[in-house]
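thought: fold this chain, then report.
action: predict
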Amino acid sequence: MPQVTAYACDDETTHFHPLTITVREPGPTEVLFDVKYAGICHSDIHTARSEWRQATYPLVPGHEIAGIVTKIGSQVTKFAVGDKIGVGCMVDSCRVCGYCKDGTEQFCDGPGGTLWTYGPDRNGAPTAGGYAKAFTVDQDFGLHIPEAIDFSAAAPLMCAGITTYSPLHHWGAGPGKKVAIVGLGGLGHVAVQIAAAMGAEVSVISRTLAKQDDGLRLGASHYYAMSEPGTASALRGSFDLILTTVSGSTDLDPIIGMLTVGGVLVDVGLPEHASTLHMSGLTHGARILAGSLIGGIAETQEMLDFCADHDIAPIVEVIGGEDITAAYDKVVASKVRYRYVIDTSTF
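observation:
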């Protein structure tokens, strides 16, 4: 089995260091690929710092992965050696339950459930993610990266792209719809591009106006700051769909109030702690509060093709392995514009 260099942390302090790991040879339906780029998602940070649940260390995170196929199993038909391949948040499911058959493998409730990209495997043993020089995955959970997408910017689409595309698509963002994106960060700056490409009138709701120029350049028609007095009241009843991408806990009442009658607020930020909401904000406008969790493999490929067709790509800062520790703190402090991507050639 190949041994490759990865970057791991040993505890909640998330000080990353090189580590040699073993990557399995591809089975009959699997592909082995060289990881070229790995995005840093805030979910990686929550996981590595045991903020959602206790992690198992040493931990090699990474579920935004882009690479080049180097070896394929005897029954592989989906990929060939030399293909560009992406891997997102999951690497297997039962394949037979209703959710899997419907293309929503992320909700698999069959034997073993969804197998996430890093963490415990089916037997409880730790597995490594994309902060590594190589990765092995079943062909059914690999994604084709279109040539039109800048390779160094492709990795974040495997999570940030599908996390925002899926709810925007599901809830009908498009011509005639007013859509607001809460937060212009790693998720939000992709959401703005996607919603605009879908034909919606897009607004950004942020804490300040510091990123206004970026938001407008990415496709927003309006930009609002919650720090300015009167913003929430001025926007009451304004939006058909609001997508909140912020990971900090918040009072949802002002945001709910910005929805039209029958409007939808979708959360994809997944704050660590509870948010607050008075139910009257929903009932008095027949409004809907919803959540969304990535998307199935077919929808993720659909998202990649959509991004290629509409010239959509994350704005990235490419870093080396030795920069991961500092990058985590900068992400938490909102000091990245807008997604860190690790170049594994630095390992």
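thought: worth noting. The radius of gyration is 20 Å.
final: tokens above.
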